[in-house]
Amino acid sequence: MPAPLIGVSTYLESSARWGVWDQPAALLPAGYHRLVQRAGALAALLPPDAAPGAAADVVARLDGLVIAGGPDVEPARYGAAPRPETGPPARERDAWELALIGAALEAGLPLLGICRGMQLLNVALGGTLVQHLTGHRGPDGVFGTHTVTPVPGTELARVLGGEHCGEGGGDGAAGGARDVTVPTYHHQAVDRLGDGLAVCARAADGTVEAVELPGAAGWTLGVQWHPEADTGADVRVMRALVSAAERRARRRPAPR
To answer: Which of 115, 136, 200, 212 is labelled catalytic?
Structure first.
């Protein structure tokens, strides 16, 4: 069986420098595609595309989807006015990634949201965000670390409860809710949960650190931390996505 194809959404920047060039660019930190590859899959970068139906067309070609971290979600998306601490909107990304999330949920495509990606998943399902909190990132451009506690009995607890991800995403233990130290860089978080979402990890201060969608047509998880920035190369969360993508690919009818 070919390695599954995992799409990863990208930044869209008006100016980026490399070599002698300074141009608009769709880009992504290399940690994302390297983590996908370490987990046993192929990575495809998905820049914003405003064409009608583009998100559904992309999802139809993928085995799994990652919504990457990035700038703050525009508060208008969840019916709020921006606070002074909220960053400038990234409207093209918001529109594209919300369309990708909607298409993935409808198609039952395995989905992993990372940081902003988790927040967008929550917003896509009708939830809201805390626009500013402290203590969850280091200085500008530097990841901090803190501890998260998985909720026992959740999919995330199974994923983090063992070194290998099987059908259930872990070793199948109902426990596995050991504290985990994670790389973190965010100042926003989930406030009101979106429809159907369940909290599956919290920080020591109570901040929601992961959500999942029990009963969804496809494996769906969001984490507030940055597994792609883990220097210890903990691939468990990404490997769980890849395992779900492989299971879905095996169920797909063979082409005639």
So the answer is: 115
